[in-house]
Design goal:
Layout lengths: L11 E4 L2 E12 L5 E9 L5 E7 L5 E2 L2 E12 L2 E6 L5 E5 H4 L11 E7 L2 E6 L3 E9 L12 E6 L4 E5 L7 E5 L4 E5 L2
Antiparallel strand pairs: 1-2, 1-5, 2-3, 3-4, 6-7, 6-9, 7-8, 9-10, 11-12, 11-14, 12-13, 14-15
Length: about 190
């Protein structure tokens, strides 16, 4: 069992039979009362976010989460096909469970399949991934490396805000958690 002081960012826990991960936390203690931990938790199966407050005496059950390497094969409608690289079994996940992940999936990319109670529930992407810019407006004379941004479409179809100097064909690094431009790929 976990205590409230164990609820750090990234901690995986189980509430009402569902797996969650802590995305934000704030500990506070009142004069004579016990400690209180306020957290934002994201459901690993559905992607929904909840605000919860745990009291000092609360015991929280850790989630039994495991990961397996998989390769994204293709999407067919709202179903996304992955191949488990240990068993070579095809795993099908519905788009509604994947959250923003489909915005970053390209054929053949490696991902981590999340398993809860031995069932695949979602995927986890690398925090930073490299993509090719397929569409953006050209830079204008006088644009500088620092300053404004413009929209650019990456190879998956997602639109990302990039600096003015980025051109079509450039490879850029994108943070898959926030959807923001990080840097031009080297």
């Amino acid at each position: 069992m976990l205590g409230i002081t164990d609820l750090k960012i990234g901690t995986k826990l189980q509430l009402d039979g569902e797996p969650y991960v802590v995305t934000w936390n704030q500990h506070s203690k009142q004069a004579r009362g016990g400690g209180v931990m306020k957290v934002k938790i994201r459901n690993l199966a559905t992607g929904s976010v909840l605000d919860r407050t745990f009291q000092g005496a609360d015991k929280i059950e850790p989630a039994d989460i495991s990961f397996r390497r998989a390769q994204f094969l293709y999407a067919q409608g709202d179903e996304y096909q992955f191949m488990d690289q240990e068993t070579y079994e095809t795993i099908v996940l519905d788009k509604s469970k994947l959250g923003d992940a489909p915005d970053y999936l390209t054929d053949g990319i490696d991902v981590d399949l999340l398993y809860f109670d031995q069932n695949p529930i979602n995927i986890q992407l690398q925090p930073k991934m490299t993509f090719v810019v397929t569409q953006t407006d050209p830079g204008v004379q006088g644009d500088r490396a620092q300053g404004g941004t413009k929209p650019a479409t990456i190879e998956t179809g997602k639109i990302v805000r990039v600096p003015l100097f980025v051109a079509i064909g450039d490879k850029i690094v994108v943070n898959t958690d926030s959807g923001e431009y990080v840097e031009r790929a080297k």
